[in-house]
Design brief:
Largest sheet: 8 strands, parallel, barrel
Number of strands: 11
Radius of gyration: 22 Å
Shape: globular
CATH architecture: Alpha-Beta Barrel
Strand content: 5-15%
Bound molecules: S-adenosylmethionine, iron/sulfur cluster
Helix content: 40-55%
Number of helices: 24
CATH class: Alpha Beta
Length: about 500
């Protein structure tokens, strides 16, 4: 926690020189007029044009703005269905039938900003404010591990009490938790962070503390809208400080960064183009784009009229279109659909080619521990608007969602081995573009799934899970790559048996 007064701390946050160094001839990479022009130029592509563009996506090449704009203008429903199927095919090509799961852990809802759409905004007097102590971080982590999670995204409001030192302490605390399970033990193996933009020096400290991916959503790429929802006298009111948050992270040596836009504040087609330009600028300046793209939809939040009546709220049909176009435009990047969406919409988004999702999610501060207590006392565990950032669409447990995916023929991967073996940043992106990362992932997904089945799965889950793990193993045995690689397969089988006997956290 910072020893500075609130006013002093605020003055320290933004560093103009860490914005200016990324400008291109004094200009930002987002130019609203240019994007509007691109969108206008993309009117009514014919089927052949769209299919040619899809061939490029299938070759795992990023699309240009004109191509993305063309896809955004498609009106024919059968062509949209073709695009969705191609998106799913791309996802399978790059990520096979794996879905990665994570759990958000909200550490603090103290916030100096006043974002019009967020329940944590400083002027929301209905919100109960709380910052977790380290003991509470430990309890929350234990509760999340008990569900079977191995990956966290830690979330913080922007405040002097939850400054970088607090983040580091909470990350280290969560990494240190080891919890007994049915047949072994569990721990958190990767921690990502969603937090306000920071200086390069602070980002370096986060990296040294073991940060995985650093995620910052631009919310909206349209400056006027940005100004309307983020008061100018707040830290978040500085559009440019946020626009280059991930550039600074790259400079700090964090090579897994995650972009996102909050859909519902401005025209969804415009935001898709904004995300593409953001990706392109990271690629241009650092040779590597974002690790994941998020596209949260605005959800109802307390004391936030705009979260309920924004004229730009995105309907379900358009939401699936935007997911489809993003999948085709940046074919090698991970895509995250969250529990903000209903069970049905999550399912549909996954069938457009998403790669990551969360489950058993609680977004109140101390939410996991509170829910456990309430369960023990047979009390209601319904969501409460004044205790969380916004309302969730899907509150099902990890067990239920993993089972649903198994029934859809998908395997959940709890694997974090890639990062721990140095397969991050440009290395992993290169492997993804050439579809080779999948070889390691396929084996590690089976190993971590085995752990989940041994330690956390309900009887119903186990039934569905054993089937999918069997299918995966059969596929592995059939693949020439694995048949040739006898040593790798020996290691795999040895580790698989070790896990059955209670050993944990072993990977290839
Ligand atoms: N305070 C940090 C910041 O603003 O960057 C990080 C944490 S904030 C809690 C995480 C994200 O939640 C925001 O970037 C925003 O996109 C999203 N969010 C805020 N209000 C929301 C709402 N009503 N519905 C859906 N997502 C929301
Ligand atoms: Fe604070 Fe982030 Fe919510 Fe804005 S979105 S009020 S910065 S927690």
């Amino acid at each position: 926690m910072s020893k500075l007064s609130a006013a002093e701390w605020k003055k320290e946050v933004i560093r103009e020189e860490e914005i200016e160094k990324y400008l291109i001839s004094g200009r930002d990479f987002i130019d609203e007029e240019q994007i509007k022009g691109e969108l206008a130029g993309g009117r009514q592509p014919d089927k052949k044009q769209v299919r040619d563009i899809m061939q490029k996506s299938l070759a795992i090449e990023r699309l240009e703005p004109a191509e993305t704009a063309a896809l955004l203008q498609v009106t024919d429903p059968s062509l949209w269905e073709e695009m969705r199927q191609t998106g799913l095919e791309i996802k399978r090509k790059v990520y096979d039938n794996r879905i990665v799961f994570f759990a958000p852990l909200y550490c603090s809802n103290l916030c100096v900003n006043n974002c019009a759409y967020c329940g944590f905004k400083c002027e929301n007097n209905q919100e109960k404010r709380r910052i977790l102590t380290m003991n509470e971080v430990r309890q929350e982590t234990e509760a999340v591990i008990s569900e079977g999670h191995k990956r966290l995204i830690m979330v913080y409001g922007e405040h002097q009490q939850s400054d970088v030192d607090y983040m580091i302490e909470s990350i280290k605390t969560a990494y240190d938790v080891k919890k007994k399970s049915k047949n072994g033990w569990g721990n958190i193996r990767r921690i990502n962070v969603n937090a306000a933009p920071m200086s390069i020096a602070n980002l370096k400290k986060l990296r040294e503390a073991g940060l995985g991916t650093y995620q910052v959503f631009q919310e909206t790429y349209d400056r006027k809208t940005y100004g309307r929802v983020h008061p100018a006298n707040t830290l978040k009111g500085n559009y440019r400080w946020r626009l280059y948050a991930l550039h600074r992270a790259m400079d700090a040596g964090i090579d897994d960064v995650a972009v996102g836009a909050l859909f519902g504040l401005h025209d969804w087609r415009f935001e898709v183009m904004g995300l593409l330009h953001h990706t392109m600028d990271l690629e241009r300046q650092f040779g590597i784009g974002p690790h994941t793209i998020s596209f949260p939809r605005l959800m109802p939040a307390s004391d936030s009229p705009i979260s309920k009546d924004s004229p730009y709220l995105v309907n379900d049909a358009d939401f699936l279109k935007l997911v489809t176009v993003l999948r085709l435009s940046v074919p090698y990047t991970g895509m995250i659909v969250t529990a903000r969406e209903s069970a049905e919409m999550r399912r549909k988004a996954i069938l457009c080619g998403c790669t990551q999702t969360d489950a058993s999610t609680k977004i109140g501060i101390g939410g996991y521990t509170d829910a456990l207590k309430k369960l023990e006392e047979f009390q209601e565990t319904n969501q409460k608007e004044d205790e969380q950032q916004f309302m969730l669409g899907d509150t099902r447990s990890l067990d239920e969602v993993v089972r649903e995916l198994a029934e859809m023929g998908m395997i959940t991967s709890f694997c974090t081995a890639g990062y721990r073996c140095g397969r991050t940043g440009d290395k992993i992106m290169g492997m993804l573009k050439h579809c080779v990362e999948g070889k390691f992932c396929k084996l590690n997904a089976v190993l971590t799934y085995r752990e989940f089945l041994e330690d956390y799965a309900s009887a119903e889950m186990k039934k569905a899970g054993e089937k999918i793990i069997q299918k995966e193993i059969e596929e592995i045995q059939k693949q020439p790559y694995f048949q040739k690689n006898k040593e790798l397969m020996n290691t795999f089988w040895r580790e698989y048996e070790q896990i059955r006997k209670g050993e944990r956290d072993i990977y290839i």
